[in-house]
Design goal:
Chain lengths: 329, 426
């Protein structure tokens, strides 16, 4: 039994999770602590508690997603909620229904929480103003992906036992990344030093105004980083002239065994939000094996497991049920 | 029918001052402006403590006819214009179909004749269907009464095409109203590029998209000698470019819109689609620079860029929402937050009349058309959605409080707004 009242003298009061920009540090800490307790449930023989029994959660995904959608769905099921899937291919979106109408229709079925992913920034905000269900942002355009950042924070905390004063580098296409934005807000609130690294076409100079550093040299960044969060590179960006070729990107920004052996500090933790382009931003030998010598390893699959715990915590908090999460006998 | 406006503070645009005078109107014309005019047959409007200005002239508006009459039409646009103090509005050709031929120019005039309480003057497209590929029949449209030419919403990207249009316009010193935007630079952009776009995760439109295109058009105007008017300036660097061009004697004028004088990019925070506009709202320093440029005369006019949009085009995801906000009903009141009324009379009537070559508009003097605006400068009011006259309600100024309101409006000698009430006089 996980007694939430013992976790912290703090009451969660948010109805929606739209992004980390607006979250207080204490709220982030609360999510991480609750996720830590809930992770224990995942290792039980019966991996299910009745906390959200009778609650209905709609997964409204306008963009393709593997791990995020499954992670939310499984998190909901672990808490005994009912889930309904609404994905773009099987929905009336192809018939031209507006987001507002879709939201109102889902609401009319008395859904308690809507988890939404959409390629337009602000979609979760927009839905939160138009429907009464709790809204969880599962990625809105280039804006935010709060649960990804929370699971990244959770993973860092799990391995490093702290976040404050760590140097965390985010590598890749920062400008177009919602994962980067949410991570930046979360990491800054938790007291980390953040360095962004990538070619200038993928970095806006204004990022410096958020109190973070920018570097175009991955080798220099590795010399001081405790954590590396490697972003997926989209091939389509070549057409937009953000970089000339995958080969050139790999040569200068690819995280490879050789580069790590040469420049990285011992104990470097490597994260990636997935899906990985094997051999582009992350080489297979790093992804699968890690470097025993310097105690450097990637924790990409651990992130996936932690994502489940973090999303259970978020679903639980947004549902507003409060009290204890009790195990099934 | 005679009208006698008594004891008003009457604008003298030549001296840039107000004097207490009476104004006598007979038929469609102003016949006398003097002290103590007596005329027992005239209807008297007491303008004591009120300001008497020439009716406002809008160089840039979208009335959505033909094609989107659900958003605005000739009648609803004219009602909104009357409420805002406008007696003449120029309508842009980005309609469906585009106003790119003499037939549609005549159509607008005919619809206005039947339904409008103000003058509606069509602006023809520079290129066919505003596509930038072939010149439209500018001369035929000019003969049909088009007051100028614009591909508004699009920039004529091909420099040779723009050069040809400018050369062609020389025949009658036809006015070219230019929407300046390098669409490669602003591709996918929905708001100003900067901190706000970064935080909101929206693609930005850099100011260089405007500045570069303004500068190219200035160079082509130098080359050809064409009469150009740059519309809706949004940033400081464009102001500098226009200022420099004027010093060099280029035949150039410019306007900006009320929203650039009242708002900055912060207005879109919280994904407020009613503040989504192209060019985008920019920074406080740009806002200050535009106000200064109007005061210094670098920018000649304030034009509304009145752009009505339906609910479904605005009540949606931010990057899918249409660009544009309505402007007639708030332009003067927004102007009054930063300018004296005499300056507004100049920027919103006298100068636009000059730019359009309307020799009998823009002043309160004998012989001029009796387009007269009477303002209660102390009247406080709030913009409530239910009181918006335009068919569309897409304005970021809902629930704003203003001081200064149109009390009477006379169009060609007919009272179209009487004691704050719109009269449907056609």
């Amino acid at each position: 039994m996980v007694d939430l009242n013992l976790i912290k003298e703090f009451t969660w009061s948010r109805k929606h999770l739209l992004g980390l920009e607006s979250l207080e540090k204490i709220e982030i800490e609360h999510v991480l602590e609750l996720a830590k307790s809930l992770k224990e449930i995942l290792n039980r023989p019966v991996k299910k508690v009745p906390a959200l029994r009778g609650k209905t959660i709609a997964l409204l995904f306008y963009e393709p997603s593997t791990r995020t959608r499954i992670s939310f769905e499984l998190a909901a099921k672990r808490l005994s909620a009912d889930t309904v899937n609404f994905s773009v291919s099987s929905s009336s979106v192809v018939k031209g229904e507006s987001l507002k109408d879709t939201g109102l229709n889902i609401e009319a079925m008395n859904v308690d929480i809507i988890v939404v992913r959409n390629s337009s920034a602000g979609t979760a905000h927009y839905l939160s103003k138009n429907v009464s269900a709790g809204i969880i942002n599962a990625g809105d355009g280039m804006h935010e992906h709060p649960t990804q950042a929370l699971l990244d924070l959770f993973t860092i905390l799990e391995y490093k036992k702290k976040i404050s004063n760590l140097t965390v580098a985010i590598v890749g296409d920062i400008a177009h990344s919602r994962v980067a934005r949410s991570n930046i807000y979360g990491l800054k609130k938790m007291g980390a030093r953040v360095i962004l690294c990538g070619p200038p076409t993928m970095l806006l100079p204004e990022f410096k105004n958020l109190g973070i550093e920018i570097s175009y040299d991955l080798n220099r960044v590795l010399e001081c980083a405790d954590v590396l969060n490697v972003l997926r590179i989209q091939k389509e960006r070549i057409n937009e002239s953000l970089f000339p070729s995958m080969a050139e990107y790999r040569e200068f920004f690819g995280v490879t065994r050789d580069r790590l052996l040469k420049y990285a500090r011992p104990g470097l933790l490597i994260l990636h939000p997935g899906p990985v382009n094997r051999g582009v931003e992350l080489s297979p030998d790093v992804l699968d094996k890690g470097l025993i010598k310097k105690n450097i390893y990637s924790v990409v699959l651990n992130q996936v497991t932690n994502g489940l715990a973090v999303r259970m915590a978020i679903l639980y908090l947004i549902s507003g049920v409060g009290g204890k999460v009790e195990a099934v006998d | 029918m005679k009208l006698l406006i008594k004891n008003g503070n009457v604008a003298d645009l030549k001296k840039k001052d107000f004097k207490i005078r009476d104004v006598l109107i007979e038929g469609e014309k102003i016949v006398q402006v003097a002290e103590n005019i007596k005329d027992s047959k005239a209807r008297v409007i007491d303008a004591s403590c009120l300001y008497v200005l020439p009716g406002l002239i809008d160089l840039h508006a979208h009335i959505r006819e033909p094609g989107r009459e659900d958003e605005e039409d000739v009648f609803s646009a004219s009602c909104a214009a009357v409420k805002g103090g406008f007696t003449t509005i120029c309508c842009m050709p980005n309609t469906s179909p585009a106003i790119d031929n003499a037939g549609l120019v005549k159509y607008i005039f005919e619809k206005a004749q039947q339904l409008a309480m103000v003058d509606i003057l069509p602006i023809g497209a520079i290129t066919k269907n505003r596509a930038g590929l072939e010149l439209s029949e500018m001369l035929k449209m000019w003969v049909a009464g088009a007051v100028g030419f614009s591909d508004d919403g699009n920039w004529v990207k091909n420099s040779l095409m723009m050069r040809r249009a400018m050369e062609y316009s020389l025949m009658h010193e036809m006015l070219l109203i230019l929407h300046c935007e390098d669409e490669d630079l602003s591709k996918d952009g929905v708001i100003n590029e900067g901190m706000v776009s970064l935080k909101m995760g929206l693609s930005g439109i850099p100011r260089e998209s405007e500045v570069i295109s303004v500068k190219r058009d200035i160079e082509l105007a130098k080359l050809t000698g064409a009469k150009i008017h740059i519309t809706h300036l949004s940033c400081k660097e464009s102001v500098d470019a226009v200022n420099e061009a004027k010093k060099q004697g280029v035949n150039i004028t410019a306007d900006t819109a009320p929203h650039y004088l009242a708002l900055t990019e912060e207005a879109v925070l919280d994904y407020n689609t009613n503040a989504k506009i192209n060019p985008p709202l920019r920074l406080e320093e740009d806002r200050m620079s535009l106000i200064k440029a109007l005061k210094d005369g670098v920018i000649d006019a304030i034009a509304t860029d009145h752009a009505p949009h339906s609910d479904e085009e605005k009540d949606c995801e931010f990057n899918l929402a249409s660009f544009g906000i309505t402007g007639f009903e708030t332009a003067l009141a927004i102007g009054m937050k930063n300018f004296e009324l005499i300056d507004l009379a100049e920027k919103m009537s006298y100068n636009p009349a000059k730019i359009l070559g309307l020799h009998d508009k823009g002043e309160i003097n004998p012989g001029f058309i009796a387009d007269v605006l009477i303002v209660d400068s102390g009247m406080k009011w709030k913009l409530l959605e239910e009181e918006v006259v335009s068919k569309s309600k897409n304005t970021p100024f809902l629930n704003w409080e203003f001081k200064g309101k149109v009390k009477h409006l006379i169009h060609k000698g007919a009272v179209v707004m009487d004691n704050f009430e719109i009269k449907e006089v056609i």
